[in-house]
Write a structure and sequence with these properties.
alpha/beta; 18% strand; 218 residues; two-stranded antiparallel sheet; seven-stranded mixed sheet; 33% helix
Length: 218
């Protein structure tokens, strides 16, 4: 039996000093690391004072990116390779989520996934297949790695996707395609296009993310 990698990364405990009542897991993009997305936490702590924020490093070292990690290698971005990569990485993230729920003695309804870029692909890959249903998925600058995911979903958590219309890495067409497939599959999916924004997260996106997380985790 293959042993899955163990994920580790920064953790920010609840701002109220108590035991966690919610978990927010942040999934970074290709070539980045958990320390990057943990920087979003100060924007959301006031709205979620009982949440523990966890930002694991992806399981693989990313070639050519100092201190960078990848969920899977991007030697090819053709749809079949993308889908295969996300599927291969999914069990490791699933096991990590199981471990965090057990550690804090919380239910899936108390868990939200937040992703950026390749991390959004992972959040969508795993979040649609988890049973019982998680609280929600917030995805920035991402896409569906496996476009069959929505139609084959086991659960349908609410989703918010936010994307810059000037993104040179994952063009805005990826956002529209993901939204279309999710809507067709019956998901409660919201979308926001950020005018002039590249492959990044702006203040407006952070504010919308805060509202979404507060809503699904309340």
């Amino acid at each position: 039996m293959t042993t899955l990698p163990t994920l580790e990364g920064p953790v920010v405990p609840p701002a109220n000093g108590g035991a966690p009542t919610q978990i927010v897991i942040l999934l970074h993009g290709y070539g980045s690391n958990g320390a990057d997305l943990i920087g979003l936490v100060p924007h959301w702590q006031a709205a979620l004072p009982g949440a523990v924020f966890i930002s694991p490093n992806a399981p693989e070292i990313c070639p050519g990116a100092p201190d960078g990690y990848q969920w899977w290698g991007l030697s090819s971005m053709d749809p079949a390779s993308r889908a295969a990569g996300a599927r291969a990485a999914a069990p490791t993230l699933d096991a990590f989520i199981d471990a965090q729920l057990a550690k804090y003695d919380l239910k899936p309804k108390n868990l939200a996934l937040v992703g950026f870029s390749q991390g959004t692909m992972m959040a969508l890959q795993v979040g649609l297949q988890r049973q019982p249903q998680i609280a929600g998925i917030l995805g920035y600058s991402g896409m569906l790695a496996d476009e069959s995911g929505p139609a084959n979903a086991r659960t349908k958590p609410p989703i918010l996707l936010i994307h810059g219309d000037s993104d040179p890495v994952l063009p805005i067409a990826a956002f529209h395609q993901a939204g279309k497939l999710l809507l067709e599959a019956g998901f409660d999916v919201q979308g926001k296009v950020s005018p002039g924004l590249g492959h990044s997260i702006d203040l407006g996106g952070l504010q919308l993310g805060e509202q979404f997380l507060r809503g699904v985790l309340s």
